[in-house]
Amino acid sequence: MSDITLSSAVRKNLLSLQATANMMGKTQERLATGKKVNSALDNPTNFFTAASLSSRSSDLGRLLDSVNNAVQTLEAADNGIKAITKLVESAQASVRQAQQAASAVEKTSITSASRSETFDVPKSGTSGFSITPRGGAPINIDTTKMQSLEEIEYAIDQIEGFSARLIPGDEPGEEKLEITASDGTTGFSIDDIGTGKGRGHALANLGIGDGAHATTRKFDTNGKSIIREKLQSEYNDLLKQVDDITKDAGFNGNNLLANTDLRVIFNEDGSSSLTIKGVDISAAGLSLKEVTGDTFQYNDDIDDVLTSLDVALATLRSQASTFGSNLSVVQTRQDFTKSMMNTLETGAANLTLADTNEEGANLLALQTRQSLATTALSMASEADQSVLRLF
Predict the structure, then answer these.
(1) What is the pTM of this model?
(2) Which of 32, 124, 300, 377 is deepest in the core (most CB within 10 A)?
(3) What is the pLDDT of residues 310-321, one digit of tens each?
(4) Domains of the chain in sequence order
């Protein structure tokens, strides 16, 4: 093109058209991408600053996924604690029921050679009770005419296969009555036979029932309360369920109830984080042991079990509060991270995004300029074309 000679006017118009075409290309690119800075050539400072802000936002976005998992892990642990709390409360109810089922049993009342049970001695007779050997007919004992404790003891001694003895108490009026079945008797029950207003009073005085309703007490071949044995089995089953829930309370491989810690990172370099301490909420971790032998047959042992359940409930409620505080912190950081990501993206956009209205107006103006430049170029070339008229 350097070999072609152009007039000054034509060359100026040509340069103007080239500049206009170049600006139109940039404007069209901005409208197409929505950005006024598409590369470092457009504006190095804005381009690299925006890239840095966008990169940090992306890093926080990846961290936000782990924060979301931490929230779910805490919720899973909280659900587990709630379920375990219900089980412990159920175990507590079973133990209290066992306590009420045979509240007068004493360790000294059961011997290896016989089946026996100890009760509070009635102060006066207003009704009666019966002793029924297992598989046999009930034997009634009428207490309405008995005036002394010895009379009740004597009446029981007259029953074949049974004997009774008075056990002195520490204070007057605290005597106990021990009823013993011989080795040939496989078990026995004591039932209220009173009628009318006095019904239930004899057994209440013996330490059985509430004195208002008919009451039955049954004992197995070893002199043990059948109800207490059943409730002891239920208690152990509940403890097994506590262990099962503890194992199932994990989320995405993290189980805070299995003594596993969880570290939640909140920023890119890990300098801001929270370590959530795991705990052992299994039955063993709560100091709840499987009861064996005759534990539920004795009030002192049952009281010990109740005490351990009270401690376990306090531990569960305290840990639920701790996890609740941790969850609040993590959720607060979760919301903060989302807001921070939005701020970073907005900052990057402010540095690079184009104003489409402005760019549209620019394109229209450039198109008009291009049209005018084309017309001007045509007019400038007419001077050269006038030479042709000489021929």
Answers:
(1) 0.58
(2) 377
(3) 999 999 999 999
(4) 58-100+229-342 (1.20.1330.10), 105-224 (no CATH)
